[in-house]
Write a structure and sequence with these properties.
Blueprint: H1 6-22, E1 27-28, E2 41-46, H2 60-70, E3 74-76, H3 97-110, E4 118-120, E5 122-126, E6 133-137, H4 153-160, E7 164-167, H5 185-192, E8 198-203, E9 206-207, H6 209-218, E10 221-225, H7 232-236, E11 245-246, E12 255-260, H8 265-273, E13 277-281, E14 284-287, H9 289-299, E15 300-303, E16 320-327, E17 333-337, E18 342-343, E19 349-352, E20 356-363, E21 371-382, E22 385-392
Parallel strand pairs: 2-3, 3-4, 7-8, 8-10, 14-21
Antiparallel strand pairs: 1-11, 2-12, 5-6, 6-7, 8-9, 12-13, 13-14, 15-16, 16-20, 17-19, 17-21, 18-20, 21-22
Bound molecules: zinc ion.
Zinc ion binds near residues 48, 133 and 168.
Length: about 400
Amino acid sequence: MINIKPIFLILLFPLYVTSIQAQVTSKYERKMFFPDLDNYKTLLTDFHQHTVFSDGKVWPSIRVEEAIKDGLDAISLTDHLEYQPHSQDIENPDRNRVYIIASQFAERQNKNLEKKLIVINGQEITRSMPPGHINAIFINDANKLLHENDSLKGIEEANKQNAFVFWNHPAWPAQRSDGIAKLDDFHKYLIKNNLLHGIEVVNELYYSEEALQIALEHNLTIMGTSDIHGLIDWLFKVPDDGEIHDNILPGHRPITLVFSKDKSKEGIKEALFSGRTAVFYNELLIGKEEYINQLVKKSLTIDNIGDLELGYSEDGKSTIKNVRLKNISDAPFLLKNLSEYTFETSSDIINIKPNSTHTLSIKTRGKPFKELNFEVLNAIIGPKKYLKLKMPISK
Ligand code: ZN
């Protein structure tokens, strides 16, 4: 360091400042955002929620307002068909009522919104295990699903109405004492006869790796929902002060990202039946490799604005390259370096915050520098399986 010429100090200083700043530019807004894929729109949805029309604590309009605050594209309010603890105060003879109230309220709100909220008619068929709790969305008439003494009839009726049917919280400890999701013969029958189309891998505060295994093995659509009964803000600790925060990872409800041909009820339904989903839950993205791969590649890119070669070494032959990564999504990315390169300012584990840029100084040792190679430790594509991400370098 003794012989460093002043010119190099001048060159070094802005670089140092830049790399420090790269660590602290993460921005957060309450409305969640994920980029579209090449051929599909990325729609943010929550298809399992409750209101006072079963055991929820709020009027349906509150669910609409929460969804708008969170930037969602579509919701379904799936009250328990059979479980009506508020019936002394709210008689609820028409189980479609929650949908009617919510969709009419959303229609009025949508007039003033750039991003419209779609409300889908749904209900939760609430049975002991098996089959446990089953959600049916895109139904025409909720009342016809109500069969108190037969667990199969409601599911069959939902299918008659061409509903999308998914299994809720298959690992719920109240119905699975070991907390492990597993198929009973009843579920196998439903799957075999194409009466069950999806499964919650995430429900409320819980993630089930075994449910993910079942989804992948039986080609069920991967779902994540809030199953909210009280307030979204309280349960998921969502900061709601209207501010943009630096450098924090805020709470959010679990959502299902639906990769849809367009933003319409028909589009969403087609995507769900085709299994084009991913789940965003806590700091995790969970889904089939095909869609997680596309989503991560759209979210995290090499931002070529940064200099690739600064050449500040005394002999002018630095082989250290600076690459700026840019994350435009609301998910963080926890990267594990799989390449032979080492980094100047970090270990092999790099945490890229949501909505941030991050400059990596890569020690190439003068070898051909063609791609970065990571395992994305919070992008889950199967039990104990994480997305491998190759990022080609092009000047
Ligand atoms: Zn529920």
